[in-house]
Amino acid sequence: MSLGRTPPAANGDMRMVPVPERMSISPALPPRPPAAGSNALVEYVPPVPNPEEEDLEIKLRRIIEQVPVRVSNTSGSSAGSGSGDFHQYRQMRRKEQDRLARMDADYQKRTEVAEFNMRREEQNRAAEERTAKNRLKRQKKKQRKKEKKSKLNAGGEEHRKEESSDDNGDSDNDGDVKG
């Protein structure tokens, strides 16, 4: 039998007991100092910020700040339409039409610029092809001219060699005749 006491867990007596800190083996980080007066089992550590993510956050914040906030003066559900409601409607309608017209103009401008760049690139490519074709023709013509010149020089040198050998032979013959 028991002494009349119930175990502490049975009573619902749950106590927070500090858990000794485990030493994690991490060569990159130095060990953390024990938390002063903390009895938490898990300690929150903020994530290390990534510079690229920070840049994205800044850009996103800037975009959100630049988006205009439209506040329209709408009447409540129980109110009837007053004398100023038609003017408000016309003003909102005109603003929306202006916004749509600006979007259309911007889209038209972008498509024109894209088409212009495409045509310009195509024309540049065609001009480059023509230039390459003409360059090839010039090089072939130059090569043929060079080959023709070298053939003439080679043929001329053979002819000169024959003449010089004939001259040498004639002088030998002339010497024999004289002597």
Can you offer a commentary on this structure?
This protein has a domain at 85-174. The protein has 179 residues and is mainly α. It starts with 7 loop residues before the first helix and ends with a helix. The protein has 3 helices and no strands. 0% of the residues are buried. The chain is flat and about 125 Å long. The chain has helices at residues 8-11, 51-66, 85-178. The model has no long low-confidence stretch (mean pLDDT 76). Helix content is 64%, strand content 0%. It comes from Actinidia chinensis var. chinensis (Chinese soft-hair kiwi). InterPro entries: Prkrip1 (IPR009548). It holds the Pfam family DUF1168.
Q: How is the quaternary structure best described?
A: single chain
Percent range of helical residues = 55-70%
Major pleated sheet: none
* SS element count, helices: 3
Shape: flat
- Weakly predicted, low-confidence segments: none
Strand content: under 5%
Overall residue-averaged pLDDT value: 76
- What is the terminal-to-terminal distance? 161 Å
C-alpha Rg (nearest Å): 49 Å
Supply the helix-strand structural class: mainly alpha
Order of helices and strands: HHH
In terms of topology, how is this protein built?
Elements: H1 8-11, H2 51-66, H3 85-178
Keywords:
mainly alpha, PRKR-interacting protein, protein kinase binding, protein kinase inhibitor activity, Prkrip1, double-stranded RNA binding
Summarize the structure.
With 179 residues, the protein is mainly alpha-helical.
